[in-house]
Amino acid sequence: MERIGRAPQRRIWAGICLLALSLPARAQDPKPGEFYEDKTDLGFKVRMPARWETIPPSPDDGNLILKYDPKSSKSVQLGPNMQLELHAWIVKFDRRKKAVPQDKSERKFVANSKNLADWVKHNVGTGFKSEGEKALEVGKVPAVESILLNGSKGKDKGEDVRLYTMLYKLQPEVDVAVVFIAPGEDKKWSKYVNDFRAMAKSFKTVEVDYVKPVLAEGASMRDRKRAELQDQCTRQGKDWKLYETPNYFIVSSSDDKEFIEELKGRLEAIRAVYEVDYPAAKVAEIKAEAARVSTGAKEEKGEPEAEAPPAAAVDPMEASRCSIVRICKDRDEYMSYGGMENTAGFFSPNARELVLYDDRANRGRNFTWLVMNHEAFHQYIFYFYGNISPHSWYNEGTGDFYSGYVYKNARFTLEKNLERKEAIRKAIQAGTQVPLKELMRWSQKEYYGDNKRGADALQNYAQGWSLIWFLRTGKKNNAKGWDPKWDTLLEDYLRILAATGKPEQAIEQCLTGIDIDALEAAWLDYTK
User: Going edge to edge, which strands form the sheet with 174-183?
Assistant: First the structure.
C-alpha cells in the first residue's frame, strides 16, 4: 500500500485506542526508569518509564523525539468493555532557523505542530480540555505543568482519558515536553499521576558534547545520507542499527541477522527487475516529452515562454540508490511506528521510507517478502516520477504484479500472485467482478471499497493485479483476441500521466480507440 496523495500520509499516533475486550488486560505500570539523554543537540535528560520500549520518529515528523510503549501488555481497561493503549512521548517545538539542505529536492517534510496544544490535537486526539496549568521551575528551567481531560465525568466517566504534560522552555527558540496518557477516572488516574510527575520533575540540562562527523568537500549523496542515518541511530538508541547494500540503507531494530541478510539480497534482486521494466533512460524520455507537451500548450495559448527551469538538484537514479528501508522488530513496534491493521509494510513518500516487519508469526515470512516486492516498487518508481498518483488499478496492480515474483538462487523469476489469482477467480465465478470501463476510472476511495457496487478492496486488488498481469503477459502467451492496440496501453497511460499530471486525462486518452468490451472479453478468458 503506497501512501502517495493520501491524507494523512501516516497514521496518527494511537493515543486513544478503544477496542472491544474479550479478557481484561493490564499494561505495564509506567514506573520511573532510566534517563533519556540528549547530548547530541538540545542538551537535556529526563527519566522515562522503566523497561518500556522506544519507538523512533519517522523522518517526516519534526516534533517527536521518542515515543515509549510498554514491552508486554500495552493496554488498560477503560470502562466495562473498552481499553486504552498506554504511551509516553518526548516532543520538541524547535523554532530555530534551519540550515538550507544541500539537496533541496531530497525530502519534503510535512507541516509540524507549532505548540503542544496543536500537537495533542493532531497526534493524540481531539476533545482534551485543560484542568489547569501550573508555572514552575524544573532543573532550573522554566516549565508549565498541565493535566488535560477527555471525557464527560458523568455517567460514562469510566471511559475518561487524561494526559499529563510538562513543557520545558529549554531555550528561547526551543521548547521540549513530556506527555503521558492514562485512564482519566479519578481513582485510576491517581495510580499514575504521581509517577508521571516524578518523571517530569527529573528533567535536567546537560552539556552537548556530540560533534557530527565532518564530510569532505564534494561528498557523494550516499556519503551524506549515511552520515545522516548514523546520526539518527545515535539519537534513537542502541536497538537501531544501520546496514547497507549498493542501493539501499536498512535501518533495523531486529536482531535476526539471517533475516536481514536475506532481505538485503532480495531487495537488490527485485530492484534489478524494476530496472528492466522501468529503466532510467525511459524515465528521462518520458520527462522530456512532458516538458515538450507543457511548452507546446503554453505556445498554443499564446502565453509567454517561461525561463528554462534549473537543472534538477538531485539525479533521480542517484537518489534512488540511497533508498531507506526501516525494519521494525515485531508487529507491535510496526503498528506503533505507523503501520495499519492487516498490513506488513508500507511506503511513505514524505518520509522516503519503506517500512516492514517480519510477519512470520502471523501470515508467515513469505507474506513479508510478498509485501516487500510490492512496496519496494512504489519506492523505486517514486524517485523517478515523484508525487504523481496513478489510478489504483495501475498503481496497486503493478505492485501486486511484482509481489508474485519468486526468489531462487539469488534472483527473481516471474510467477502469478496466487492469492490474487484465487480471489479474482472466485469473483468471476460469482459474477461480482467490476466492468473494466468502471474499474479503470475508479478513484482510490472507490478502489478501497467505498463504491456503489459493494466490491471490497480484496476483490479490487485482485482484479487490478489480474488486469496488469493480462496486459504484461497476454501478448507473449498468445491470449485469445489480443489486439495490438493493447501492446502499449500501460506505457501510454504512464506517459500521458507524467506529461499532464492528470489521471483522468491519462485514462481517457490511452483508452481512445480501444474497444473496452473486447478488452474485457479477452481479459476474462485469460483470467478464468
Answer: 53-55, 64-69, 88-94, 174-183, 161-171, 141-150, 129-138
C-alpha cell at 98: 534551519
- 166 by DSSP, 3-state: which? strand
Determine whether domain 239-297+314-385 maps to CATH 1.10.510.10. Answer: no
Count Cβ atoms within 10 A of the Cβ of residue 280 and give its class: 0-12 exposed, 13-18 middle, 19 or more buried: middle
Q: Indicate if the alpha-carbon torsion angle 353, 357, 358, 359 is positive or negative.
A: negative
Which is more confident, 459 or 154? 459
Nearest CA to 119 out of 165, 68, 76 is that of: 165
Share of the chain above pLDDT 70, in %: 87
- 119-133 pLDDT, tens digit per residue, is 999 999 999 999 999
- H/E segment holding residue 474: none
Name the residue type at position 400: D
Cα separation, 12 vs 518, whole angstroms? 45
Q: Give me the residue spans of the domains in the chain.
A: 32-205, 239-297+314-385, 413-527
The CATH number of 32-205 is which of 3.40.1790.10, 3.40.50.720, 3.30.540.10, 3.40.1000.10?
A: 3.40.1000.10
The predicted-structure confidence for 448-501, as pLDDT tens digits, reads as follows: 999 999 999 999 999 999 999 999 999 999 999 999 999 999 999 998 998 888
Q: Which of 34-43, 198-207, 388-397, 493-502 has the highest mean pLDDT?
A: 198-207
506-517 burial code (b ≥16 CB/10 A, e <16) = bbebbbeebeee
Residue 354 and residue 488: Cα distance in Å, rounded?
30
399-432 per-position pLDDT tens digit: 999 999 999 999 999 999 999 999 999 999 999 9
Helix residue ranges per DSSP H, 474-515:
489-500, 503-511
Please give the backbone phi and psi of residue 201, each rounded to the nearest 5 degrees, phi first: -85, 0
d(CA 221, CA 249): 12
